[in-house]
Amino acid sequence: MTDVPEPVRKCANLLKGTKSDTEKFAVLFMVTKLVKGRDANAEGKKLLFEAIGFPFLKKLLVSKDLPSDCPPLVYKSVALSILTCFCQEEELATHKDIIGAIPTLLEIVEQADDEDYEDNLIVVSEAYSCLKSIASHAPGQQALLATGAIPKMSQIYSAQSFQTDEALHLIVLLVNKFGVLSWPEDPTAFHALIQRIALDMETDHTDRKYELCRILADILITCRKEVVNNSLDGQIWPESLFKGCGDILKAKIGPKQRDPALHLIATTLQVLGIQWAFMDEQKQFFLSLLQLAAIEVRMQMDEKKLETTFKQAELLTCCFVILEQCIEYMATDQLDLEPKEKQTTYTALKGAFNQVMAVLTRVSNDKIRESTNPRDKNFIFAIVRILSAWLAQETTAMRPAIYKLLPFMLKVANESFHDLKTWRTGSREGEEPIDVLRIMMPALCHFAVEDEARRVLFTHKQDEILLEALEFYFSIAHWKRPPIPRAERLARMNEPDPVPTLEQKAEMKVARGAIVSLCNILMNFTVLEPKRAEDGATFVNLLKFVVENLPELKDTPDNLVIHGNLAVLGLLLLKQQSKKVKQNDFSICRYIQATIRFLWDAYNIDESNDPTALVVSIAYKGNWSDLSELWFLGMQTMCGVLPLVPWLSEFALESGWAEGIVKTLKKVKIGTLPANVKSAYEDFLSQLVDVNGDVQEVLKKADALRVCRNHRMMDLGKKLFGD
């Protein structure tokens, strides 16, 4: 320690020579001057820290048993003044003793409103300074998280105590570091904090309003979305945000005000969904928002250097979030627009997306496309994502340019998918990557039926990636309890079965949506590329995946739509690959049983108010818009599969399905059976009769004659009874 200044060395020796706390405390007044002066370098502070000894400083902070010649607050003030200077050095700020003092420091700031501190608020200020320095380094951040500093600071700010902005800045620093892990399962502290800031933002009309917009956005994006959305009853902060943001949209503002406002709006939509934009049950906020975001995109991307556009990545990404939610909402046809509003909206969107296309085309030909800078990479992901959302709805415009750009879009989307896959199978550090491929799937459904686009997809082996994505998302949707280590199995034998967390349930919902889109794309491929579906290795593996996994899928209401999609996809593939199917292949047998269950359970009369009316079963009713076409396609494809794989007919007989259809239709009132349902059943039963000699007798025993007469099933009647 040769570089320790002489005054500091002398002071350290004095401290070491003290024989009582009173003597040591007297020397501390010299230390306070030294540590704030020019003589105290890092080595000097370290020497003084060791000479004082942390236990003595801790005693001054917490002990009631101190000499009575000074008020306790004076001892505390001196100790904190010295600690604040020590904490400016990383080595001391991360020292285990100082990190161990975090609960004491938190206690001081929590008591800022106590009468004891009213006369000496510098104590609270010094405590905040220490916490701020500790929070600047990873060990301190971890310790603050572990001691519940974020909920405690949230309570301090929501109670509007002294120096609450210090608490707010600490919260922002920590939530930016830890994201969703910042918040406990109990959302009380989160709601209280957001309510306080939202109210301040709504009622403040100075520049602080826009600073609070930025802070709100930083905090909101880290929340546990499912927990927050499930506990919104009685919370008024969504309304405060709506009013505050509405005032900003109506005001004449410049970029300094507009940027943080767009940032907050985009984040709020990500947390609360598009319904938040209709809190007043009017469409004006929504339309103003859409226009503002579209104009901003057009302006920021208009004929500028790519470098300039990329500098605005954060703002543009916020605009993309807003536009994506607006486009998805408009696609639901819930928005009632006047002709003029429709025209204005479409013009704004078209202008914005022409610019998005132009920028992405330039990116695809520029060296920036290979950038490893996470900021650049994420912005390219965001551009491809928003363009994909637009192409899911805009199915005819700009086709030649899109086909040209499609290979680059696929490359970006596939890279993002692999980033997510790696993240989920690894340590899951940092923010969860967004899968742009999943967002692109609805657009790929359209591309799958366009000859030129399909050619591009197969040229770039996209079918292989889609199979990989199906396997990945199925592993999320088909949630299984984590395996129990063998050594613990006996002890945990009587444990109740675990259930997925709210976050896992949200992931499963997203995964189910992805599976439905993937099945649609792959069905289109199978039908429109029969040769590939028959011989291609990807399609052989795809059928193998379906027949092995469909029977394993849990029979729950949430899984019904993916059950139907996988069942019908399997039938379409089975039809193309029938020559390869081995008789009584065990996995095919289990798959067909699961498929029969889906087709059989769709209609019944037991759940009808009228015992003579065939109705869609209650389990299917809520999703019938998604299942209806699948059911008819499944019945039709089953008819196509039976002549090619006739031994499958045994399952229709042994399960009782064929007989069950006849018995059900026998009870149905004449003239009430819908024509398309009648055709589906008649074609299927006729096909069964053709491929299996045992079917006739079974159907006749079930009174097929009456069914054929009642419902005018002429073709089936001829097959069973002749003319």
UniProtKB/TrEMBL annotation:
<feature type="repeat" description="ARM">
    <location>
        <begin position="100"/>
        <end position="149"/>
    </location>
</feature>
<dbReference type="InterPro" id="IPR011989">
    <property type="entry name" value="ARM-like"/>
</dbReference>
<comment type="similarity">
    <text>Belongs to the neurochondrin family.</text>
</comment>
<dbReference type="GO" id="GO:0048168">
    <property type="term" value="P:regulation of neuronal synaptic plasticity"/>
</dbReference>
<dbReference type="GO" id="GO:0009653">
    <property type="term" value="P:anatomical structure morphogenesis"/>
</dbReference>
<dbReference type="GO" id="GO:0031175">
    <property type="term" value="P:neuron projection development"/>
</dbReference>
<dbReference type="InterPro" id="IPR016024">
    <property type="entry name" value="ARM-type_fold"/>
</dbReference>
<protein>
    <submittedName>
        <fullName>Neurochondrin homolog</fullName>
    </submittedName>
</protein>
<dbReference type="InterPro" id="IPR000225">
    <property type="entry name" value="Armadillo"/>
</dbReference>
<dbReference type="InterPro" id="IPR008709">
    <property type="entry name" value="Neurochondrin"/>
</dbReference>
<dbReference type="Pfam" id="PF05536">
    <property type="entry name" value="Neurochondrin"/>
</dbReference>
<dbReference type="GO" id="GO:0030425">
    <property type="term" value="C:dendrite"/>
</dbReference>
